## 1
Amino acid sequence: MAVILETYSLSKSYFKKSALAGIDLKLESGRILGLMGPNGSGKTTFLKILAGLLKQSAGAYTVAGETDSNRIKGLVSFLPDRNTLYPWMTAADAIAFYADFFEDFDRAKANDMLSFMKLEPTHRVKAMSKGMIEKLNLTLAFSRHAKLFLLDEPLGGVDPVARERIVSTIIKTWTEDSAIIISTHLVNDVEQIFNDVAFIDEGKLILSGDAEALRTERGKSIDKLYLDIFEDR
């Protein structure tokens, strides 16, 4: 398997405060990694650096062997933890916007996913529920031919039915030549699709590895392991 992501002592500081401290991580093609940690642990900072939205203070990273930050942006698809679409947009408008903005955007795939998500092209963002907006944003993120997909809290604040549809979409979109990182607090809802996991706290990677190997070694689910690690934080 090819290495999709490799980070080398990746760090980020704001003035004298450290948000990320020396993260070393490797992710291979065809793998889904669960990135877990409490609020303020550095998960979003890590994802934003990989997406090219923040500049690291130290360290480096490669995506599919690429080191140039401008080229990396074309290999990474990022789903932020909050909606960035304009309220007046319809689902069809959002697809057209992404198609104009990203050269690798696949309109046919987007329309197919829209149908799978049970979203109408004419439905406006301002009239959508939070779950519908999340599904639309996921559709847009996964309709790119990216090498690395970054999902920041894709299940946050949506109902169980929407969560199931989102998880199904992630599985449906999985390909052997790309990799996915999912940042989440709702570990129990999504841990079954994790191949790898990484626990982060106060900007530091405190535990990582193959999900099944960790379950066997620790004798517990990833959700229970998460609770044990962070119950006092």
## 2
Amino acid sequence: MDAAPDLPLPAFVVVPAAPFLMGTPEAALGELARRYGGTRESYREEAPRHEVLLPPFAIARTPVTNALYAAFVASTGAPAPLAWRGATPPAERLDHPVVDISWNEARTFCDWLARQPVTFRDPAGNPLATGGGPRLPTEAEWEHAARGSDGRAFPWGEVFEPRRANTRDGGPGATTPVGAYPAGASPYGALDMAGNVWEWTASLDAPYPYRPDDGREDLTAPGRRIMRGGCYANPHGYARCACRFRLPPTTRNEFTGFRLAVSLALEGSKA
């Protein structure tokens, strides 16, 4: 079934089942401290760098917008984000990422969207054969989509360039329309994965190495959830693909948004 006209869904980019480098090498922690401040231990949570292999999945090319979230609010009567300052988003911000969203609210949105008659499509408009409903990406999925397989520092490469991301280094000091920095695309074509808004992931805060079967992907477990990507108010050190942040799942503020992911149907199974 196709998406209803009032559901402005993002396109989804496919991330293949390929090994990728997750995290930061131990030897690089001191350099991060010298470059971005803090101490070597400030970055310990990113180490060690390790290889991870995940099943293929698709991730939204851009974060959930105010326009899409407004359809959810109108349909369910869910509370509107405080940033709207009313029941509907400002017209000039319909294409901006929604903010003031808690992890719990993001998951409720995903559950609602899963009940809608929608088809998820790639950037060329082709339907995806999905293996489940929309959800938050895991921390590992987010990082793979952002940096590709080679462990690069930013979605586009090793060196930060202000024109490629909405951060404090060169942005307007507020959210920008999703996709406004096309030069910041990741190797798989995902946009806004550096800066603009922090993005919730499904994962609990847990040390590396990443293991999907160690309880960190238990959606019912208490604890802080990992956020990724940095935001418009942060210097670019927070926009590194390996940077990890965490907040309680009830927290909401003007810097927090999210994007969607979907599992892909296994070959030979029905979509």
